[in-house]
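Justification of resources, computational component.

The compute hours requested in this renewal are based largely on the per-chain cost of generating structure records like the one below. Each record pairs the submitted sequence with a full structure-token output. That output is archived, and it is also reused by downstream analysis tasks.
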Amino acid sequence: MLIRWANENDLPAWYALATDMSQVFQHHADMGADLEFISYARSKVSEYEALTAVDYMSGTNIGFIGFSRINNRISWFAVLDKYRGKGAGDRLLKTALRQLDTTKDITVITFPDNYLQGMAARALYRKHGFCEDRPVTYDGLPRCEMKRPASTDKRGGSFHYHYPEFIKAAQKEGCPACNNEPMPDGQIDIISTEKICVGGEYPGQGRLFGKLYVMPVDHYFHFEDMPETDAAFFLNEVQRVGRALRKVTGAVKINYEMHANSGAHLHIHLFPRYLDDDFPSAPIDYRVSEPAPYESYEEFLWFVKQMKKELSK
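The structure output for this chain reads:
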């Protein structure tokens, strides 16, 4: 099963599901043919506010969920009858909630607790933290508003949480690196050429002395889109930086990780691994950065100076 953004090609399947759900939703007519609903679905698709679950082998659209970032709420949600209870609804709701602001209350208008056909939906909302019930009238029908209270969960800049902003930055015109926007706090250039940039950071992801990244100057989002000659040159440069990094730091091993799910300009992270690092037999948790692995900021600058010296050879 694939959870992805709904697009215009999915609209007929969404309308068909809405038609099937008309009776359950107690809609006065065919919801899938309702001009207001058709307008709603089109707007959600265009704004990256609609997700669909798709069966890999058959290509069937199993379910849809619509939400509103402005209103911080779930606004439409249904799964095909024969696929209910198989995890599609759970994954759709979990993914939609990632795109909403969890530092504020998230709401949904759903069925009252005495409506048999709405029990599964209510149970799923409760599983994902919705609790308070407030009776309301919606489209002339008795409904209730459930609320997911605000939390203090910390989130990064990944596409999992901020997709519209992320996908904008994935284009050269909106890329911070390509438009010479200030570097994030704590980052510093080690070398910058016509082809690559090597950056260090303080205090350092994973609390690893010498953690840095290598980035091509030309803008690429997907590594597989980089021409072979450029990819070969880039990887040769990464290898050269890794060799210098291991010499300067005394690391046992260098981990090379290409993510770009936060910074949309392709880059490779180099994580030096040590006998005493915090992640034995485990991958690096980049979110851990304090206390700094350097004795002082002066030691960090010493590391930068040594890397510049090695890379200039």
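The CA atoms of residues 65 and 133 lie 21 Å apart. The longest strand covers residues 61-68.
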